[in-house]
Design brief:
Helix content is about 80%, strand content about 0%. It is an all-alpha fold. It has one domain: Glutathione S-transferase Yfyf (Class Pi), Chain A, domain 2, CATH 1.20.1050.
Length: about 190
């Protein structure tokens, strides 16, 4: 599998996970909202139901029904709120992971372009597998033209370091090692 395909596959998997989490988040919000409304309605009507003659036998047989109902509603509401809190934490972690991947992608993409511009100036046509000096001959604005060769290399190295820093020192749901390998490949490539 090519590195680009591997990265695309990783991003698709993260997107599916984010979409699934968002769906679960929406469903949890709906359940919490319905439970709050249900609890409020039951609590509002309990005094009225307890005094209603139709429920007299029930009241005598189950004198703690209103309190038990309130407690059951409170327990259910607490369970939903706990689930909601867990979903929020999971969603928050996923958003942070996606933000780090976005910053990684920006840095790695710009580093790739800078190295491509440097190779266009420093490598031969045989080494590149395409016409060397093409950008220079077309008078395109390139990083070596703007910054100079050494400053361009230094900027590419700095971007690679930034990209790697986005991956290192964080807990990941998926192993970031292939992405670190991509950063090393971009730095070392000769064509």
């Amino acid at each position: 599998m090519r590195m680009g395909d591997h990265i695309t596959q990783k991003f698709r998997a993260l997107f599916v996970k984010a979409n699934d989490t968002l769906g679960r988040w929406t469903a949890t919000q709906s359940r919490a909202s319905a439970l709050v409304v249900s609890a409020a309605m039951v609590i509002e009507r309990l005094p009225e139901l307890a005094d209603d003659q139709r429920f007299g036998p029930l009241k005598e047989r189950f004198p703690t029904l209103p309190q038990a109902t309130r407690e059951a509603q409170a327990v259910a509401l607490d369970r939903v709120m706990t689930n909601l809190r867990e979903e929020i934490e999971y969603f928050d972690e996923l958003v942070k992971e996606l933000d780090r991947l976005q910053r990684f992608s920006r840095a790695i993409g710009l580093a790739f372009q800078i190295i491509d511009d440097v190779l266009d100036v420093t490598a031969t046509t045989e080494e590149l597998g395409k016409t060397a000096g093409k950008d220079l001959n077309a008078d395109k604005t390139t990083f070596p033209k703007l910054l100079g060769l050494e400053a361009s290399r230094a900027r590419a190295d700095e971007l690679i370091k930034q990209a790697k820093d986005e991956l290192l020192g964080h807990e990941w749901k998926n192993d970031p090692t292939p992405l670190l390998g991509l950063a090393d490949f971009i730095t070392a490539r000769k064509n």
